[in-house]
Amino acid sequence: MASEPTQTAIDTGIFPVTDRLLLGNFLTPARAKLLPGLGVTHVLNVSDAPSVVSAADAGVREMIDLPIEDLRQLSVEVIEDALTAIHRMLYENEGRVLVHCTACQNRSPTIVWLYLIASGMEPDQAAAMITSVVKDAVPGHSALVSSKLVEWARRLGDKLFDR
């Protein structure tokens, strides 16, 4: 598990949350060139703008755009799509997944936070893990999720992790 952000992470805008799950700022062509060296195999874009690079350009197996408007409540469908995609990408040939939005403050940290909760982590522990590497992240932003959605993500985790 990751702890303090390294200077490299701060400089690149790509932050390891776990060994195989990373958060980042919007994937620019320059940032995309770094992905193979970081071992990233899959990318999930949860910003409201489409990707500006392709999976081939970034040297990854797969890139998914799942548009999320910032500071609007997430739907169950969007959460299910995002968490299911992350889970599949992580467990597909031991993937290493980058989840990004525009500034890595609300959307991508909240999606990764929900995934960590779905995996069995407590919300406070998941938030602390994220904010230890992305200092200005707001995982679980109240404009994006409610306690009902958090509980729904936990139940989805029971299905994803076969519990």
Q: What is the helix tally?
A: 8
Q: Kindly give the count of domains.
A: 1
The structural class is alpha/beta
CATH topology (fold) name: Protein-Tyrosine Phosphatase, Chain A
Major sheet strand order: 1-2-5-3-4
Gap from first CA to last CA: 22 Å
State the assembly state of the protein chains: single chain
How would you characterize the overall build of this protein?
With 163 residues, the protein is an alpha/beta fold. The chain has a single domain (7-160), classed as Alpha-Beta Complex (Protein-Tyrosine Phosphatase, Chain A), CATH 3.90.190.10. It has helices at residues 7-12, 29-32, 35-38, 55-58, 76-91, 107-118, 123-131, 147-160, and strands at residues 14-16, 21-24, 42-45, 62-65, 97-100. A five-stranded mixed sheet has the order 1-2-5-3-4. α5 (76-91) crosses α6 and α5 (76-91) packs parallel to α8. It is globular, with a radius of gyration of 14 Å. It starts with 6 loop residues before the first helix and ends with a helix. The model has no long low-confidence stretch (mean pLDDT 94).
Question: How would the blueprint of this fold be written?
Answer:
Elements: H1 7-12, E1 14-16, E2 21-24, H2 29-32, H3 35-38, E3 42-45, H4 55-58, E4 62-65, H5 76-91, E5 97-100, H6 107-118, H7 123-131, H8 147-160
Helix pairs in contact: 5-6, 5-8, 6-7, 6-8
